Amino acid sequence: MPSKRARRHFTQLSEFERGLIIGMKTEGWLTHRVAGQVDRSECYVRNCWEQWTREGTHARKTGSGATRKTTRRDDRGIVRQALVDPTVTRSTIRADVGVAIVPQTISRHLAEANRKSKCHFRTPEHRQLRLQWCQTRS
After folding, report:
1. CA distance 32 to 111
2. Within a 10 A sphere around the Cβ of 13, how many other Cβ atoms?
3. pLDDT digits over 62-103, tens only?
4. Has this prediction a pTM greater than 0.85?
5. What count of other Cβ atoms lies within 10 Å of the Cβ of residue 102?
6. Judging by beta carbons within 10 Å of its beta carbon (0-12, 13-18, 19+), is residue 115 exposed, middle or buried?
7. Positions of E strands within 1-138
8. What Cα–Cα distance (Å) separates residue 65 from each residue in 61, 62, 94, 104, 136?
9. Any residues with CB less than 8 A from the CB of 75 and at least 6 apart, and which?
């Protein structure tokens, strides 16, 4: 019984591998033979060849992704606001930006700028409520 080959699942084809597949298929190789040679599934080979015959290119398509709602200037404004006042809330920043974005977007922009969220100042009311909460549970 032949030994199983370790296949590289869920990895993209490199440009070199795509070129090999196109070259072998152009020379008339069968799909299963090409797949064995480059150690990929026949589906990979078939899709690469179909893209080549349909579009005339073997380059990977870029991901679509969601469109950006903020500009680079808006992103800098978000970070600047957090620098000026470390205790500012995400909802306040969102209102000042003027663009409909979710709070996670603001957190992501701050994280990209290596800004960590600061703890809000504790008021005496907060301290009193926390003390009561701890006492009832002790």
Report:
1. 47
2. 19
3. 666 778 888 889 889 888 988 888 778 888 888 888 888 888
4. no
5. 11
6. middle
7. none
8. 12, 9, 22, 16, 49
9. 109
Question: Cα separation of 108 and 27, whole Å?
Answer: 49
Q: How many residues are present in the chain?
A: 138
Report CA Rg, the chain: 28
Residue linked to tokens 């922009």: 109
Six token digits for residue 44: 């990979």
Element (H, E) at 130: helix 124-137
Give CA–CA dist 38/108, Å, rounded: 39
* Alpha-carbon torsion, ordered 32, 33, 37, 42, to 10 deg: -10
Q: Look-up: residue for tokens 């680079």?
A: 72
Nearest partner of 47 among 62, 31, 70, 63, judged by Cα: 31
CA 27 to mean position of chain CA atoms: 38
